[in-house]
Every structure is written in structure tokens, then in C-alpha cells.
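Team,

Forwarding the record for the chain on the shared tracking sheet. I've put the sequence and predicted structure together so nobody has to dig through attachments.
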Amino acid sequence: MSEHPKTADIRQNRMSAFTELLGLELVSLDKEACVMRLEIGPSHFNAGGRVHGGVTFSLLDSAMGAAVYAHLDAHESTATIECKINYTLAITGGVLECTARVVHAGTRTMVVDGEVRQDGVLAAKCLGTFARI
């Protein structure tokens, strides 16, 4: 199986306009895992002074989707079918690191596990199902 063209774009930090807007940065991507990081800025906070949960979820969904692309054939694409997240830390700033791993690569769907850490402390845990389309 040849590498998916989107994987090359992701490796060049050309993921999407949305990930660019958020400021996501690729650290590494291979069939084992995708690692992304995000330096928290003023636009990432909610009205309560904490990082908005949607920012954390978007980091997870983006890293998990990239991990899926590392397993797809060139003619395939993917979409998130469902995703369940547990927030374990109220994030107030700093740098977030997200690691995503494909735990099941089926012919029609993939299950991906993801986590976000801040300074090594678990901030969010996620499990998602992605379609192969």
C-alpha cells in the first residue's frame, strides 16, 4: 500500500484551514501513532478563563483523523462517525500534546484512541470511530 497523499500534506503541516486557525502543529505521524501539539493562546479560552473544551476536542479529532490517514489507501478518505471524550483537567494555558493511535483497522471502520496531556498530566481521553470512505 502506498502512502495516502493526505498523509504527506499532514507531514508538511498542511492539514486544513481549521487546524491552521487553531494553531495545531504536527510532531510525528506514522502507522503507530500521530502526535500533535498546541500552544495555548488567548483565542483558546472560554468565558470562565479555561481552555474551551471544543479546542481540546478539535485537537483530539484532528490527531485521530491523521492517525487514520496513515492507514488508508490513496483512493480512500475518512470521516468521524462518533467520538466520546472525558475531560480530566481544567486547562489554563501552556502547551498541550495529543497522541492518537489506531487500535482497530477494519475494512469499513477504524477505532482510534487519543489522549491530551499538559506537562505530562492527562487532560482528556477520547475514543472514536472513523469511517473508511
